[in-house]
Specification:
The protein has 290 residues and is of the alpha/beta class. It folds into two domains: 195 residues, TIM Barrel (Alpha-Beta Barrel), CATH 3.20.20.140; 67 residues, no CATH class. 42% of the residues lie in helices and 14% in strands. It is built from eleven helices and eight strands. It has a five-stranded mixed sheet. A three-stranded parallel sheet has the order 1-2-3. Helix 5 crosses helix 7 and helix 10 packs parallel to helix 11. The protein is globular and about 50 Å long.
Amino acid sequence: MTAPTFDLQSHSTRSDGALEPSAVVAAAAAAGVELLALTDHDTVDGVGEALEAGRAAGVAVVPAAELSALDGDREDLHVCAYGIDHTDPALLDTLAAWREDRAARAWRMADALEEAGLALDRGALEARAASGRPIGRPHLAQAAFDHPANAARLADEGLADFGKLLEAYLIPGAPAYRRRTRPTVAEAIDAVHAAGGLAVWAHPFWDLDHDAEVLATVDRFAAAGLDGVEVFYVTHTREQTLLLADHCAELGLLTTGSADFHGPEHPRFHRFRAFALHGRTASLGPIDIR
């Protein structure tokens, strides 16, 4: 089966990716991607560079971002914004305020890692922050994993890479996880619409486990104005994909997909087009600018 020629999540050094925005576009082009979205977390800083690189490489690049949001006790759901005006002053101000909250949370988690007995090279983190680049959980996990003082402990705990450390210490319910305070999913959807974009719930089964809960959450978000769901995702099973595809068709929602590329060395999200449609057709609507 031919893999999709669109890939609507990817990340650069403007958030938690390994490559510069232009290099992300080059990697996508080399993989045969025709329609790409650079969806850095809570920022559009790399969109202009990606658009320019896309024109040069013959890749249609959709202005986009991935917004982290709260939903009740759920502390880190993601809403992808597609087709936004990435130069809109109101959007830029809103994202800046959300990043400030994100930055404060990152330092709370750094403190919590140290309280849990893990050493951190704060110099590298502070240098990243000083350069204007965000600090996310992957950066914190990498800083702890790379510190030699932690090597024996991490080996004892079976944490073979920074991704395993992140899952052990920095996901909801883990010892060093600290939640953000804003925005809610509804606020994220409203901000996307205000910037002329479409709001899509990213990777539902990455965040939630049970079919009924996922479908009920899709219904609630649709009532709040959600435009679509990332049905086709690298970690979604065939059963999960078909369940979501059918439900979104009933609701008239867009259905997107991605391999969530973070860089060629990432342990999980390292290859474009690494997701399947399982016999269904994506409904991209205005997102498809090819």
